[in-house]
Amino acid sequence: MPEFRLYNTLTRRVEPFAPVDGQTVRMYTCGPTVYNAAHLGNFRTFLFEDLLRRAFRLAGWQVEQIMNLTDVDDKIIRKAQANSQHILEVTEPYTELFHKDRRYLRIEDAERYPKATEHIPEMIDLVERLVANGVAYVAEDGSVYFAIDKFADYGKLSQLDKREVKSGARVAQDEYAKENAQDFALWKSAKPEDEATGAAWDSPWGRGRPGWHLECSAMAMKYLGETFDLHAGGIDLIFPHHEDEIAQSEAATGKQFARCWCHGEFLLTDGAKMAKRVGNVANVVELREQGISGTVYRHFVFNAHYRKQLNLGDDSLEQSRAAVNRIGAFARRLAEVSAGTPALAEAATRAEKVFLDALFDDLNAPEALAALFTFITDANRELDAGGTDQAALERARAAFKLMDSVLDLVPEQETDGDLAAWVEERLAARKAARERRDFAAADAARAELTARGVIIEDGPGGTRWRRG
Fold first, then answer.
1. I want to staple 207 with a disulfide (CB 3.0 to 4.6 A). Which of 99, 122, 190, 263 is the partner?
2. What phi and psi, each to the nearest 5 degrees, are found at residue 454?
């Protein structure tokens, strides 16, 4: 196996990576805030982390992944208050939806999904350590703040000088009294809306709730130890979230928090970052409604390196659908043939080496994908030539299985009933669009059908369809 290398945000370099014990990668990945459906930009990050954990296993390591679920924060409380609900009434349905969406995209289960509300004692213990160490202070209203001036290494992840941390950044937007506008909240004294929505707990400083950053430090250290191998998330979390995690964790323990930090870039829509506040959000529910499989979105995401921005354009997913269909056709052919040629085995060995070299070089998914498709082209040529070498065929099957164990792009076999139901629904939508003279919508419905290999024919007796 080639050496595994990753870009470490902390050092700004691609470096050799291996778990400290040589056996199990202990990794913490920031999960969703469950007040709404996670959007496709969020899932780009989660897919990069899924690829990472699969690549680690391919390298021969076990994985212990913790992904938190933020189920108490300002947005959740506002939503609960507006609907006269307990915060759990807001978060539980979206937690279920997150897991449903995750499974649709074939994202493997993390080993644990701890919730913030279930780890309040651990968070209070961490705050007490910070107060005792003199790096946190209690404000007049009972809120507790981290004093960034007391932590010499503040800014080492984001490479921001403390003088550059402006009041008004997310780190300083809390409406609580503090000594320095740059300090961030560890514990927030309870407000009436917190009490009304079940978002307040007893603490040594009075009733209150945790700050945004506290949960990740407390849960990471509980399940992975005070120092662990890897912390990952989206690039937007570098500052302030991950910077503040480092500060509060290392100020409490005196030890390095995470040995390596990995961050995935943004998903763009028409050149703008996908974000709920911008209003350009798409989600997995919409993929399902449009008949776009999880394998199609996986392929689209893996077409770009995780540290490069990725733009979701009009035809992006259709190109990925065609690619996934090609993979599926090859998988079926490889399963059905009985033998190959010696050159087929050579192509498999060559493709496997290029694939592993790419994947282990800072998770270069585009080059790994290219290796897969080169193999498909070469293998199809050899299968066309016939051959009687059964060992060569098994070598090809093993190489393809190895590559797909990480990429997971072979589409599920669609039953005739599934396809028929979807086609009839799309035909009904097309008919309704034509009746209201919305020809753009009608053409879009036809394009969806064509993309899935369905041919439709309009005639006097209505519209008929068949597989292409």
1. 190
2. -105, 125
Task: Give the C-alpha distances (Å, rounded to integers) separating 457 from 83, 98, 315, 438, 465.
Answer: 49, 39, 24, 19, 6
Binding site residue list for ATP: 276
Taking only the tens place, the pLDDT of each residue in 345-374 is 999 999 999 999 999 999 999 999 999 999
The span from the CA of 19 to the CA of 117, in Å, is: 30
pTM comes to 0.85
Q: Which residues are annotated as a binding site?
A: 30, 216, 241, 245, 276
Radius of gyration, CA atoms only, the chain: 26
The answer to whether 345 and 391 are in contact (CB under 8 A) is yes
- What domains lie within the chain, and their CATH numbers? 5-264 (3.40.50.620), 269-407 (1.10.730.10), 416-467 (no CATH)
Structure tokens, 256 = 């390095």
Q: Known binding site for Zn(2+): residues?
A: 30, 216, 241, 245
Tallying the residues shown for the chain, one arrives at 468
pLDDT digits (tens, 9 = 90+) for 203-245: 999 999 999 899 999 999 999 999 999 999 999 999 999 999 9
